[in-house]
Amino acid sequence: MNPSDDIRVQLTADGSHTLMNTRLDESYHAHNGAISESVHVYIHAGLEEVAKQHSRIRILEFGFGTGLNAILTQQRAAQLGLKVEYTSIEPMPIGPDIIEQLNYKEHLAPESGPLFDDIHKAPWNRNSEITPNFMVHKFEGKLADFPLLEDKFDLIYFDAFAPSRQPDAWSLANLAKCFEALAPGGLLVTYCANGQFKRDMKSLGFQVKAYPGALGRREMTRAWKSTLVEDVETEKVS
């Protein structure tokens, strides 16, 4: 069955599109704003935090989805002068007929619009240079099947469907693989603040910190693979 058969395009409150997976009854982004949520969770709380320490950043994303996080990362990285190697895992790629309906290019900087198309046209399971400072590798498959290499990641975007809808994605084995994939001091960010998820992360050795959530959500999660988290200011939910 074509995964796109279960997908419907929907408008969110900030004017950007999201997708609804009708089989799971779950949206890809917050209905209060797809772009606004992604910018808050993955760019402000993730990329910009890691950019304080690194100018060359290796990112692993679990849940390529619409490619929104990828193009927002490229756009912000270009503004900050960063060099990014972006690897994204997706078990159910969305067809081009759906991607063509998304209105993200209307909300991006003019130079980033064509790059959104380039990211989606890039072949799966191989490296593709989108710009001299932004390389993308899209892996078609599950996180469990993704081969870890010697080079570790500085940042993980964990953007699977919610634990209540896709519990296997949030398994302890998957979270352990994320811990292994991160470099010391590396950061994982996710919109999720589920209690069991945070307990599992702590059991694996992550230093878990609550962070204010996007668009009215009480909190999200940032988690470091570090023994020096004392040097990181503890965030408190306002």
If you had to describe this structure to a student in words, what would you say it looks like?
This protein has 238 residues and is an alpha/beta fold. It contains six helices and eleven strands. It has an eight-stranded mixed beta sheet, with helices on both faces. It is globular and about 40 Å long.
Class from helix and strand fractions: alpha/beta
Mean pLDDT: 92
Question: Got a strand count?
Answer: 11
Between the first and last Cα atoms, what is the distance in angstroms?
45 Å
Weakly predicted, low-confidence segments: 229-238
- How many helical elements? 6
Range of strand content? 25-35%
Radius of gyration equals 17 Å
Order of helices and strands: EEEHEHEHHEEEHEHEE
Q: What form results from the Cα inertia axes?
A: globular
**Strand arrangement, largest sheet?**
6-7-5-4-8-9-11-10
Largest sheet: 8 strands, mixed
Main traits of this protein?
28% strand; disordered C terminus; eight-stranded mixed sheet; single chain; three-stranded antiparallel sheet; alpha/beta; 238 residues
